[in-house]
Amino acid sequence: MADFTESKKFGTKVYPVEAFSTSDLLRRTEALLTPEILLSRYLKVQTKEIRDRYTEEELKQEIELAINEFELMTGLVVNKVQDMQRIPFDRALYQSFVYIKTNHGPILSVEEIQIQSSNGENIYQLPATWIEVGFAHKRQLNLIPILSIFGAAGLKDGQASNAGLIFLQAINNFSWLPSFFTVKYTYGLSHTEGQLPIPVNQIIGMIAAINLLSSIQTANKYNSTSVGQDGLSQSASSAGPQIYAKRIEELEAKKLKMLAKLKATFNTKYFLSNI
Amino acid sequence: MRLNAKILKNVANINQWYYSNQATVQEGQANEIYVQLVDLDIAPGLEKSTTLPDFPLRYISQGAVVALAATFPSIDDAAEIVVSGSQPFAGDKSIWKFSLTALQLPKSGNFKLKLTEDGIDKQILVKNAISVDLLSVGSC
């Protein structure tokens, strides 16, 4: 677990993106999906069939699987995660106010940015006041020194400040240095743990519903059945094991649209180089 | 033995209560959470799943000194809540009650139980068992 006593935030919400203040006249967030809500929203017609085959704990497990699938597909996380990431020194980016692009996002807060040696020794810890977090929802951080430009003022001494001078001098001679900065930041889809944007719960629900429908439709084995005796006969036909194919297709299409929109909201596609 | 806990709701006495998937906690007020300790490896009735049965056998500790503590996790050390449980009914010691004050608001999701029986700890993870109704729902 993590310590958030020294944490830099911008003050806006994750969802709606960049919102600073909202009323509670409309609900946009809710707690994690429960089996009852999953069945009520997506599987109302199939509730009996599902309850006949699945225990409540198994339905919870299906939701858990769907959340993990969602996280894997989007690279987003449902609950807060704190990352510690090594960022290389890149002269071009350094001159752009130390442009830092983290691997994960949206960033909720930055706990520290340090210059660390390769053995993890803290050379300097950069002051939180320098960290620009206005584009944190797009995984972008910058350092804007409001004190003297990258002078000693404002820096917090590390464990080996004197020896560390070489480290700082080294940046004059290199255009690129691996693992120069170490950023500790927290990311996730909500500042409030356990609460999610409703569209995220919708996608998780659709993933779980697709998996459940796909599983239960296999029980409908026969496309047609008929019985006859003494000249009387009766027959019935259905889509057989494809009985929920159309519903699955609809949910799949909607899920893909929402996933694309969600990824576009929290990611930026561009290429970074150190030419 | 796979110890776990089932969430109970509308608990009136040892003969009147209902199973629930989640304990619903309302922000801004004191809340009570009831659980029944169970052993997932023993399911006396017909079950759809032996791995995750709906109605496993209740577990009553035979220890002389027994305690149950619930931890409601958070990534933030300062926001983690630990509450000691009590056994509200002498007639059914499998039922435990956790009282949360209005200021103790857990997060929706899993919570952990630590059962201590005569100095020996047993850890339990209860999955997706808390659902918190917040008053602020316009953004997150």
Explain the overall architecture.
The complex is a heterodimer of chains A (275) and B (140). In chain A, 32% of the residues lie in helices and 24% in strands. Chain A is α+β, with helices and mostly antiparallel strands and 275 residues long. Chain A has two domains: 29-76 and 194-219 and 242-266, no CATH class; 81-187, no CATH class. In chain A, the strands form four sheets. A five-stranded antiparallel beta sheet of chain A has the order 2-9-4-5-8. A three-stranded antiparallel beta sheet of chain A has the order 3-7-6, with no helix packed on it. The model of chain A has no long low-confidence stretch (mean pLDDT 87). Chain B has 140 residues and is mainly beta. Chain B has a single domain (3-133), classed as Immunoglobulins (Immunoglobulin-like, Sandwich), CATH 2.60.40. Helix content of chain B is 0%, strand content 51%. In chain B, the strands form two sheets. In chain B, strands 1, 2, 4, 5 and 8 form a five-stranded antiparallel beta sheet that branches. Chain B has a five-stranded mixed beta sheet with strand order 3-10-9-6-7, with no helix packed on it. The mean pLDDT of chain B is 95.
Low-confidence stretches of chain B: none
Radius of gyration of chain A: 26 Å
Which consecutive residue ranges of chain A, at least 5 long each, have pLDDT under 50? none
**Mean pLDDT of chain A, rounded to whole units?**
87
- Main sheet overview of chain A: 5 strands, antiparallel
CATH class of chain B: Mainly Beta
Envelope shape of chain B: globular
Reading the helices and strands of chain B in chain order gives EEEEEEEEEE
Mean pLDDT of chain B, rounded to whole units?
95
CATH architecture of chain B: Sandwich
CATH superfamily of chain B: Immunoglobulins
Structure annotation, total helices of chain A:
7
Q: What composes the largest sheet of chain B?
A: 5 strands, antiparallel
Range of strand content of chain B: over 45%
Radius of gyration of chain B: 15 Å
Q: What is the share of helical residues of chain A?
A: 25-40%
The percentage helix of chain B is under 10%
Shape of chain A: elongated
So what's the oligomer here? heterodimer
